[in-house]
C-alpha cells in the first residue's frame, strides 16, 4: 500500500508544474467580488438570502453579457480584417512574377485609400461598400502601410518584403483569440442563466445544499522544490452554484459543507493546516472525477459529519496526533465510493505518512515518542464501505458501537484494528499487528492473522467468519456460530469459556480449548496438530484426529464423535470426581485407526449407540512420547489458558492397564491388538472381536443386556464373567477362568471350513463354572452327523482343571444325506420295529439310567485335540437328529 502511494507522490512531483500550469490556465476564474453568503444554515429568512444571490448573479450576468457584446464587436472587426487580408493573399499568392504582384498590390492600395476617405466620414456613408462595413480606419491604414512597404522596396529586397506581407496577411492569432474569448463569455452567460433559474426554483433544502457546496481550488502554481500542501482556507474555496469565491477569514467550511476535490484542487492538501485549536468540521468530502488528490490529517481532528464520497478514487493519510473521525449517524465512507484508501500511521503530513519518511520527527527523540500515531474512528451508524484501510507504525482504526466495516479491506501492519460492539460485516482483515474484537459481530468477514499478528476476540459472535491463523489468536467468551477457523502450522489458538456452536475448526498447529462447550462443531486436528481440551464439554463435536489430542481435567465427551486418523487421543489427565472416585470419561463414538492412551482413566465407549469400528489400539501409556511435543505442550499450558489441576505426568508411568467400558445399543468392532486393555466391561449393545487380542489381556465382564461376538479366534483373556451372551461363531475363545450369572448364553456354530468341520469353542485354563450358562450349538445345513460325532464339545478344560456345565443344546443334524428317502425300511437295520430296544447298542453299564432322571443324553465330549480336565454337567445335551426323507423333508 505504501509503495503504491510513494509511486503516486513521485508522479505528482515530476508532473506537478505542467499539470498545475495547465490547470490554472484552464480555470479562467474571474477576479470579481464575492457574494456574502454568511452562515446559510443559520439564516431563518433563507429566501431573502436566495434573492440576494439571484441579484448578485444577475449583476454578474449583466457584466458578462456586456463583455460578450464588446468582444463580439471586436470579433466582427477582426473577421472583416481577416476577410480583406484573405482576399489580398489569395490574389497575390498565385502570381509568380514580382511585377505582377506589385501591380495587384497597387490596385488594392487604391481601394484601401478610397475606403479610408469614406469610412467614418459624415456624409460619405452611401459610398461605403459592403466589404468595408465592419472595418475600422486604423485597420485600413495599417494594411495600407504594409502594402506601401512592399511597393517602395528596392528590387533586391522586393521578394523578401512580399513574403513578409504574405505572413502578415495569413496571421489569424488575434481573430482566433477573440473568438475563443467571446465563446467563453457566451458559455458563462448561459451557465449563469441556468444557475439563476435553478436558484430561483430551489426550495430551502436545495438552496442550503447549494450554499454549502464548495470546491477546493489551487489558485497558484505549487513550488516543486518545497512541495507545499494546499490549505482548506476560505480563499481557496469556490462556490460553483453561486459562481463566487470567498474572502480570507470567512469561516466557510463547517459541519454541513460539501467539499469537492477536483482536478483544480491540485495533488495535495492538509485539512488541518491553518486551523485554530486543531479541529475542523466538514459535512461531506467528495472526490470528483479527474481528481488525483491526497488529503493529510495531522496534529488535530477532522470530523466528517456526513460522508466520504469518491467517483474515481481518494486517499486520506492520518499522521501524528491526527484523528479522522466519522461522526455518529453519518454514512462514513459512502457505499458507492470506489478506490478509497485511508491510511493511519506517523508523520507530520500526508507525504510522511505515505512515504514512511518522517523528517518532521527526526531528532525529536523523547518528544516524538510522546506524540500518538494517527487514528481513524467510525462511530455509530457509519460504515467503512468499500475502502482500503492501511494502519502501520502504531496507527489505529477503530469501529465503535453500532458501526460496521462494510466490504472494506483492513491491512494492519504494525498498527491495530479495534471492533467495540461493532459489526465486521463483509470486511477482509489482514493482520500483522493487533486485532481486537470486544462484543462484536464478525458477520461474513474474512480474517487472516499472520505470524506477527495477535488477534483477541472477547464476548464476540463469530457468525460466518472465515479465519486463517499463523500467529496468536485468543477466543474468549465467544459464540462460534458457523465460523470456519484454520489454525496453521505456526499458529497458536487459545479458546476459553466459549461455545463453538457450528464452527468448523482445522488445526495444524497448537489449540487449547478450555472451559468451553463444543456444540455441534466439526474439528479436524492435522498430522502435526496439537489440541488440548481442558475442563470442557465436547457436546456433539465431530472430531477427526491425525495428530495429538489431549482431554484434560473435567472434560466430557459422552455425545462426541471421535475418529482417529493415525492420531493419538490422550485421556490420562482426566480429573477424578469430587468424591475422590475413579477417573472416567465417556465418549459417544470412537472410530478410525490410532492410539487411545488412557493412563488410569476408565474409558466408556458407545454412548451414542452407533455401530462403530475402531482399528486402533487402546493403551495405558503412549509407547514413545515425543519430547518436543511434551516441551511445546508444557509451554502452552503454562502461558495463558491453564488447567485447574496441574497435569501429573507420572500417571502414565504407573498405569497397570487400560480399562474399557462398552455401553449403548450399538456394535463396537475392535480390529487391533488390545493387549494393553486390563479390564473390558461390556454393559450394553455388542462388542465384536475381530483380532486375536481384541478382548485385551485382563478381565472381561459381559452385562445382562450385552454381548460379545467373535469374528476371529481370541486368546490372552485372563477371565470372563458372563451375564449376557457370547457368540463364538466358528472361532475359539481361550480364557483363564470363566464364570457366569443367571441368564448367560454362549452360542457356537458348526460349519464346513476348508473341507473340514469347524465349530466354535471356549477353552479355559482354570477351574470354571458354566452352570448359569446356556450353551447352544447351531449346525450348518451341509454338516451331517458323521462329521460331528466327536466335535459337539464346546467347552474344553486344561489338564488338571475342571468345569461344570449347565444346559447345552445342539441344533438339527442330518444323519446321512445319502440315505434313500423313498425306502422307509433299511434292510441293514436289524432293529425290530415292534421292539424299541436296539440290540446293537445295549445300555452302557458305565452310564446306567437314573430312574429318577430319565435323560439318557450322553455328556458333551471335550476337544480331544487339547489337554483336558474334567467336564461335568446336568441336562448336558439335547438335540434333534434328522433323517432326510423325500424331497428333503426331515422329522
Describe the protein.
Residues 1-33 form the signal peptide. Residues 834-855 have a biased composition (Low complexity). The chain has 891 residues and is of the alpha/beta class. Among the domains are: 52-212, no CATH class; 713-823 and 857-888, no CATH class. The strands form 3 sheets. The chain has a 43-stranded mixed β-sheet that branches. Strands 36, 39, 41, 43, 45, 47, 48, 51, 54 and 56 form a 10-stranded mixed β-sheet that branches. A 3-stranded parallel β-sheet has the order 50-53-55, with no helix packed on it. A hairpin with a 4-residue loop joins strand 3 and strand 4 (244-245). Helix 3 packs antiparallel against helix 4 (137-151) and helix 4 (137-151) runs antiparallel to helix 5. The longest helix is centred in the first third of the chain and has 48 residues, at 46-93. The model is unreliable at 1-34, 39-44, 362-367, 634-654, 825-868 and 874-891 (pLDDT under 50).
Amount of helix: 10-25%
On the 0 to 100 scale, the average pLDDT is: 83
**What is the strand tally?**
56
Helices, by number, come to 12
Structural class: alpha/beta
Estimate the global geometry from the Cα principal axes: elongated
Taking the alpha carbons of the first and last residues, their distance comes to: 94 Å
Low-confidence stretches: 1-34, 39-44, 362-367, 634-654, 825-868, 874-891
The portion of residues forming beta strands comes to 25-35%
Q: What does the largest sheet look like?
A: 43 strands, mixed
| Cα-based radius of gyration, to the nearest Å | 52 Å
